[in-house]
User: Fold this.
Amino acid sequence: MASKPLITYGAVFAAVLGLFALSAFAQPSVRKPVAEAERMNGYALNDYAGFWKNPDWHFVTVRYRRDSSEMRLTYANDIAWKALLAGGTDYPEGAVFGKVGLLTQDDPSFTSSAVPAGARRYQLMIRDKVKGKDTNGWAYALFDGRGKAVAEDQDIASQACWACHALVPERGEVFSQPISMDISDTLPDPGAVPFAQAISRVEFDTVQVSTLPEKIRARLPKETETIRLVQGKLALNLFRGTIDEIRPTLAKESMRAKMPAVLMSKDGTLFSVVHAVAGVKSCALSGGGQGVTVNAFYTTGIVPGRESLIAEHQYCDKQ
Assistant:
């Protein structure tokens, strides 16, 4: 793995997603007292303050989410970095990955490019076999742009993170791989789709529209008779991050199967619906070329069990 580094593919998820993180610095900075409400799994963002500019940490990779216009930068502390380069799958205690999610906006001086417009979220993934005893030895900590931890049902959030990362057991449940910027005689294939194996592990089943809740049926094209519905661990462990992270994967499945794709909680209070049928409505990709128009509908609630607002988003995705 270390000899042929790959750029992470969003699609999946990260989903979680989303979702990467970190353990302590070799020489941690002075920590300020942090209220328990600002912690997740006992960790506060302040414990790793400024990890993205700490000289003892390493930049791993970057990915861009077309559906949310979000740029995500992933970093690793020295323990995680050494294990990553060695191609390890059993990361040692204290290994940490951290991710910064940046909103982007068009550059008014160079309109064909998008530039960072401020941090939206921070995510930590810490090798801690005590705090992560129920999530295969990884503890997850998620924070908003103000550094506040996920407030509602952190156990559900942790299980949802793990359900996504468990898609890549051959990588020690770590999606990110070092980005390759070395000079090479072989140019990368722009049509290649990394993480195809991970995407294929997301379980889907074809179900009748009549079995779905009315609020989901109302957001499907009228002629729809069947949809592709996510099954398995991902469907059983949902929170807001999963709903956001799953959209690229739902779009790919929708294009492949030529029918809408859906992820929903068992009680139907959280869901993500994507219509992306290849050839129906083409659009221009920001980087050039033709793509497929994706219509996405998704709930804004944090955890299942409560009704929430339903958001709608349309964007152009790569076929």
In short: The two ends are 27 Å apart (CA to CA).
